[in-house]
């Protein structure tokens, strides 16, 4: 099992895809808490397909279930839900690798505190997680997972404050990076978003009960109402009162920075029907395609999306250019859990496991391929080759985002910088030759800003997080740049 | 496990979807026979996602592997392929239910004959399978599966002919219905298509070695060349000769009827990039949308496909009508294996497990929904409701195929006739009210014929199989209409 | 999974153990039919630990469950039993290897006949199974398992008789060898024992309902009453009558030979508390030890059984010799399913996985080891070595059965003749040296006959089956000695 | 799965058996460390059959594997061992229930300390574990398991000492109760035994490398030499030196109490071939039988052990009384993992799943049944009934240990005191009537002391731990008797 790799994971190994690490969902005071959490996580499945966990509290006891695989593989049958009783629930879905250790790292994590149990789950990454881990181990803490979430638990446990909420805020104040975090105790559901607002988190409501989740699509699936985005640097504490009512207490314990939502949520991660930062993602992507058509027009016969990511931009490109939109590439959605390229002798099939050319729309035609982004370019290369083999006269690539030069440290898994296409070639012409296209153009950073927010980038105070394109990191990077001379930790491996 | 149902299966129970039963793939004389078969089956996965089997022969022994689940879940890691050595291989993918019995029914089936082993696999259904089964049981045969394929094996085993090919033809002559069948022996790969050519089967070639498969997309994935369609009523016998060359012997042992390919392959089953009967499926579907726009135009702001089936027709409809094509419904591709609607109290979510409305493209708009077909209408009803909740001003449904009135007996799993939408309502207006749309129109039978074949239906000699729309069955229906007074068979149930 | 081997299987590979292939159990007309069958099979678990199957009929339908593993691993929870409703049931437990093919071969086997379904299960082996298989395949039958049981099904299916009972007898008449067989139809439970009575089969009764099983211990566990042994060559047909009563019809369709029960049932296979052929097995084994002490006395300090097989004989030996009986070897009963000797470098541990020396009873002592039988002698060699390392002054081996020279063809899995200890050495002294004992003696054939039946062997008409010791096979051996010039069958392998 | 219960677990639920919680094994500096640990744990399997774990260190990294089930089910195939490289290893086997939580609690536990990783495993129980847990949680520690072992880890992590050994000793000093503990770091293997020496721990040697394990049988299986018992209150620190040699440093950091080994190790837990506290367990048990025959003689025809526990005492009883020893009860060793009594209507079978009467040795006889101990008496009751049904004229029970009145707090899982047979009846006569025997006698406490240690109990300073018989607990019981007014901890349940 451990040797098998899904096509998705293979892509990851090839370094030609990006991964968001998580989606979170929480609800307070609802009799169907676990079932609603399962549905919410299902709607957030695109943010992580490899494992999911749910914690509930039923007034007496906390319950948890953690499983490798899709939410829909495990969490929705009555037998599993019956193991998650209670009216408070938080859940987490992530991408990860297989095995026992992974399961140990699956969130939410739980800890027994003096004041009672607490469970937390987060999306994103801490830029000082390792630094803090070393500090608390030095003072006698035991870390059993390799997850930064555990560090947060330790900070909560060690806080001198009495109330859980204050302890949570105490911990949050020490963490740096980009994250959206949910916590639950015996009576509370707490939501927090990082000071810069890099990762998204929204607040909704169902039957008068508060909900927090990564994207609005998780509200839509259960018919919940969108209330507002959790603000950057905000902590919202919802608590069931003795009379059954729910109090909501919103605080800004840290001095917030100007909000800078991650542009990659718009480019790639968020579901097209979600509203992120008040903007419909599908509309933003269509705008990217429209702006791309304006910036880099091309004479062609068909606009073909690289499915599914490139489809909205392709629709925008087609509408702006007047060139017909056609499904020139068909995606195979049945890739399976362990699909690997069968044998060395037939490895070349590669991309065809997921994509196939629709020859009737390609043959003899000048094709504009629209993709959402290019990471290493190896997939693009194979797709161009496939399109040419299907008889295209010309193949032009238009990418609905700028070139990627820099790694992320806020929860997006990026390949090493020197593996990025943009860093491997001196200029666009060289990239174009590598990929084998007749022309290659990327959306400009201002084109992207305008597609998402209506205005071009403000260099003095950029409206969004965009370091992968620009190198402008929205926070300091302590683990990366700090003192790393302390001895390396032992590692416990379980290959289960 | 047995109580859980995937969303797909749930749909089936609701009776609001159609299922093709199978895809087949075979190759003769290639060193990577099993790996190529696995890839071919992967490309045919849309024809059956629940189980797959492969048989190979390595010059000494036959090998078989059968598994529940996707091809990509099992068949492509080196360990599994290592259990399938040899240069001759046939494979089969099917939709089915879980459990041990199902595994017993998974094709290919194998039998030890006096002249050596034979394995067979088929797509489609025999209209006299039960009649023949009774006859052979009456003369002392033992049936261990409930699959009609086993009946074919018995007919082969009982044939008085000496050569396997003649025995196969002897069996084929006795079978009625719509089918594409592959057989393999120690030296031969045999392909057969029913006399009316209801189910598709194509011949291809890779490195000079013959391949047969249900659709051309299975050739494309391995870079094989399409040679020609197997003709209706044709049996093609490929054999490895002592000198290593391959002989190909095409026969027409039965008096063929005029070919009548199943229209539902174009409407729903075949992959859009496949070429069926010489016609690109995507083009045919776009034409259906174009003809639909001409036949039943509507004033609207957006054309929205019910994904993924309705997308090509929606593109055609949008191009023909000038109304913009938009992704107003987002499909969740991570449905999972056991997704069920969690609890009675929240059952209403239903369709949202797979589809969600993209509010930004719907709100305040007049929406034309394009679907490929309507079976019972229960899904359409939920989708219309979801679109209305997203704020649509008007919802018009345009269906890219005619109304379905009659069950199929050639391998498509249809609900009981009285459950079909068209049979539950006196007229279109009543259907429209049931579904809750502002207007509802179906493509005419002639509109469909023209979309697929360029000409309208010839009532004297219809060019395609279309009984589900017209009641005109292309063959007699012996099991259904014949003498059914013989005692009912015992049934062996294994709920494993 | 396929590479792992249990210690038992390892022994088998080493060729140093014998295996009985099966135990059978059937009951007619009892509301707890499946549960009682599961309990009966549990009591017969020593006759086959690797797989078990049960078939029931509930008045409408047959049900079957087949599982690899112990009866107690699967068959006794309410969920599994709920899948086996009905008042007629037969079950089978066997030793076998793992994997899908094995499951396909697990009995009972079922067939749909013109007159209704029939399920059969048997213990033992047919000496003309392959010959008959070839004959029926030559006339068009399809064999899907490699089990001889399937051949019986075919003979039943092909019989010209009308009634199932007559068809069953027709089939039985054609089978040769040593077997006990159960069959069930919609109303009948049929039991048959081979003409020579090689394999055991007893009839019992619970709540007035007939039961058949391999040994009386399966009656004891459910509190059923022993009625009598099924006689050699007898077929007993029990049928539920329309008024609910049960008719019992005993026939002798074949001219029976004198009964010759397999001596190895007494020496090794049967459970010590069973009564086989009217004789308590524990008493017979104690007698073997008593006779052994008389035939081959030895001066020693302790009598130590090789557990568990040698224990009853050791008790007898100790009582007859006056030497104290002590547990000088402790058996580890937790061997596990996949225990293999860990690495090449520490392979020598071998026997210690199952046995360890109890030094306090060994050190400085003259030890008489009592074992039930010696097959290849490799285990004996390791045990002697272990006993010597524990400090024994002398190690004498006394074996409670004669030397084994000849293979079995009636359901006991024996190693190739040239691997048997007795065939690898010219004389007893050489065997003794090989094993490393100070002395080695086997019970005489007459000593064994007297221990079991009270009288010495009648060479003119031996009272028991004893060919492994004497070469005197009780039946002809058609498959082994007959015409084997017909072409070898293809083999279908599934390595699952 | 969660509803199924093995017969063993069922016994436990019935409260009619005792369970030791663990066996431990560790080795330092051997190239086959993991394989030897697996073999050692296999030999200790009788101390816990439900789960096992192994940790190794290979000079760079720690590795761990934890599995539910028998050691022989998982740990001995090359694939698993390959995941446990290195020359330092400790392992643990335990009895426990199924599920994910259990796996989380399976030892050894590991923690990352500032000075490097440490893994620990222990047998026994801490009488102040909960008290300490509350204290450390109050000061900010996070507990993720419910195992007391984790508390030890925390104490080590929080110690102000620099060296791991000193930290370990610091932790040990704070723990109270009865335990044997192993710890391993990157260079050290540390063994510790509680100050009273309640639980056993021995030191051995293989190829010059130190080994620690619960019983000598774990040395025997790998051919290791017994060196000595770890003394009560002793900590032995073995360390690989830079030159590859191994230093051994034995300390007595706590003021040791007089040693009092747990008598139940002799009565029930230890394997008969083990040497515990310098005394062979089989000999001790035979002596119990001999003393029992002297204290409570009875006129009878056969001495029958309740297998397997009662067998050594029965041999002793038979030798001392001159009454023949016979296997009047046969044990079924194939009980299976999930065996439950099938249905309510046939629940009465009960004990027969594991035991059956050997009628030939019982019928018409006066039977003395020898059992090792009686807990609740429910099993004894069923066995007496079974023996009577098999035709015994008289049934006398002789128990080779005294009556049990008091619960254990040192690692033996005992039922509530009021469920114990001895506490439910006013006198022996009442117990005898309850069980249905003709007579019932227990070994006296002095008889037991003499059987084990040669001398009668010294009331002023008892030589052994015997509170279950006498109420004389060897340590204070802080958790039980201390201040329990602090708030109850939340509990995290995972029903996996």
TrEMBL record, chains A, B, C, D:
EC number: 2.4.2.14
Residue positions of the active site: 22
UniProt key word Transferase: yes
Keywords: Glutamine amidotransferase, Glycosyltransferase, Purine biosynthesis, Transferase
Leader sequence segment: none
Keyword Oxidoreductase: no
Pathways per UniProt: Purine metabolism; IMP biosynthesis via de novo pathway; N(1)-(5-phospho-D-ribosyl)glycinamide from 5-phospho-alpha-D-ribose 1-diphosphate: step 1/2
Primary enzyme class: transferase
Catalytic activity: 5-phospho-beta-D-ribosylamine + L-glutamate + diphosphate = 5-phospho-alpha-D-ribose 1-diphosphate + L-glutamine + H2O
Example of a GO biological process term: purine nucleobase biosynthetic process
SUPFAM superfamilies on file: N-terminal nucleophile aminohydrolases (Ntn hydrolases), PRTase-like
Cross-referenced InterPro entries: GATase_2_dom, Ntn_hydrolases_N, PRTase-like, PRTase_dom, PurF, PurF_N
GO molecular function: amidophosphoribosyltransferase activity
Pfam families: GATase_7, Pribosyltran
Protein family per UniProt: In the C-terminal section; belongs to the purine/pyrimidine phosphoribosyltransferase family.
Role: Catalyzes the formation of phosphoribosylamine from phosphoribosylpyrophosphate (PRPP) and glutamine.
NCBIfam families for the chain: purF (TIGR01134)
Protein name: Amidophosphoribosyltransferase
Organism of this sequence: Pararhizobium polonicum
């Amino acid at each position: 099992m451990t040797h098998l790799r899904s096509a998705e994971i293979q892509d990851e190994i090839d370094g030609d895809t990006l991964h968001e690490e998580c989606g979170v969902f929480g609800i307070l005071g609802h009799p169907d808490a676990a079932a609603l959490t399962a549905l919410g996580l299902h709607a957030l499945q695109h943010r992580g397909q490899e494992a999911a966990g749910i914690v509930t509290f039923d007034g007496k006891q906390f319950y948890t279930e953690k499983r490798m695989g899709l939410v829909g593989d495990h969490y929705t049958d009555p037998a599993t839900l019956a193991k998650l009783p209670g009216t408070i629930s938080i859940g987490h879905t992530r991408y990860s690798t297989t095995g026992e250790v992974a399961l140990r790292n699956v969130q939410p994590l739980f800890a027994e505190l003096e004041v009672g149990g607490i469970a937390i789950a987060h999306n994103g990454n801490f830029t000082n997680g390792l630094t803090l881990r070393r500090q608390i181990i030095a003072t006698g803490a035991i870390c059993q997972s390799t997850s930064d979430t555990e560090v947060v638990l330790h900070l909560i446990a060690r806080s001198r404050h009495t109330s859980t909420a204050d302890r949570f805020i105490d911990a949050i104040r020490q963490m740096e990076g980009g994250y959206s975090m949910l916590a639950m105790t015996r009576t509370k559901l707490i939501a927090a978003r990082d000071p810069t607002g890099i990762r998204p988190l929204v607040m909704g409501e169902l039957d008068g009960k508060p909900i927090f989740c990564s994207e609005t699509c998780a509200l839509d699936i259960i018919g919940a109402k969108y209330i507002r985005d959790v603000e950057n640097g905000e902590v919202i504490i919802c608590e069931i009162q003795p009379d059954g009512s729910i109090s909501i207490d919103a605080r800004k314990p840290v001095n917030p920075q100007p909000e800078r939502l991650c542009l990659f949520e718009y480019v790639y991660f968020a579901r097209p029907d979600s509203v992120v930062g008040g903007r419909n993602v599908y509309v933003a992507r269509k705008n990217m395609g429209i702006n791309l058509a304006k910036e880099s027009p091309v004479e062609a016969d068909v606009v073909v999306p690289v499915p599914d990511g490139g489809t909205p931009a392709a629709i925008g490109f087609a509408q702006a250019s007047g060139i017909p939109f056609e499904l020139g590439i068909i995606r195979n959605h049945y890739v399976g859990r362990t699909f690997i390229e069968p044998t060395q002798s037939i490895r070349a099939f590669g991309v065809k496991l997921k994509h196939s050319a629709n020859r009737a729309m390609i043959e003899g035609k000048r094709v504009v391929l629209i993709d959402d982004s290019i990471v290493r370019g190896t997939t693009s290369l194979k797709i161009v080759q496939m399109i040419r083999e299907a008889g295209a006269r010309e193949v032009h690539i238009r990418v609905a985002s700028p070139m990627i030069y820099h790694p992320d440290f806020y929860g997006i898994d990026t390949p090493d910088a020197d593996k990025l296409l943009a860093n491997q070639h001196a200029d666009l012409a060289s990239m174009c030759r590598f990929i084998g296209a007749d022309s290659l153009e990327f959306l400009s950073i201002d084109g992207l800003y305008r597609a998402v927010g209506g205005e071009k980038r403000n260099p003095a105070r950029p409206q969004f997080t965009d370091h992968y394109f620009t190198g402008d990191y929205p926070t300091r990077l302590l683990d990366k740049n700090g003192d790393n001379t302390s001895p390396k930790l032992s590692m416990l491996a379980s290959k289960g």
